Here is the input.
Amino acid sequence: MIGEHMPSLYRNRTNQLDTVIRIVTPENIAFTYQLASLSQRAIAYCIDMMVLVFVELLIGCLLLFMVSFLYLPSGFAVAIMFITVFFLYWFLGAFFETVWNGQTPGKRLLGIRVLSTQGQPINSFQAVVRNVLRLADLQPGMSGGIAFANMLCNKRFQRFGDLLSGTMVIVDENTYGRHELVRFKHPDVFRVSEMLPPIALASETLKALALYVHRRKAISPRRREHIAAILAVQLIERHGLPEKVNYDLLLCAVYHAHFVAMSDKEEAEEESRHEPTQAVGAIRM
Here is the structure.
């Protein structure tokens, strides 16, 4: 869809490198994701190992302190250390990827994220499987040869753990949640947003909405209306939104109501909470 209107130079470059994957969301909207490179993933892994070693050192120092000053039996401390190292190595990465929506400390610093091959956030089972199978990917001799061979032999750069868990690693575009808000100036957007009933949208619908708004300017008006209709019709049917409204305008209004207006409201509430404190401080001065 979107690729039809990209500059030819960019389209040829991405096809040649073969690092762009096309995913169709449950809303039947096609989006593209930039696959994380081998170097990005390797650096992220090294950072994660540094975090792991740092945590192990902290625990080791704590146990040493307990043995020296709290008379903890040394054999018991060694057993605790072995068990801790085992669980940290096998499950710390899975814990981060589950809690941080597909990211570990290294992946977050490198701006990459794990997704399912359907473009959905990974679940805890997928996170555990891909992390437990890392030992097989690091063979032979912890060199990572199997991982690199697998990644070079499939179009999604998946290692053995990714293939079995149905995951892939992509560049996090920060288009949802942390991307700078798009603020509209057209009065029709504000007018339509005030007409909207209070609705609760699913997380995936909000993601699709945010992606559309951030990319709409790169799409021709004709194609924009076609893409907007796919999501807008579903929102109208499910939530009773105004029907006789331009689809693109409706999506912009929904985005404004759920992202911009809500953000402004939270900022106003935050400022109001601080105002009494500042006033009391001024009186004391």
Notes: The chain has twelve helices and four strands. Confidence is low (pLDDT under 50) at residues 1-17, 278-285. The first helix runs from residue 8 to 17.
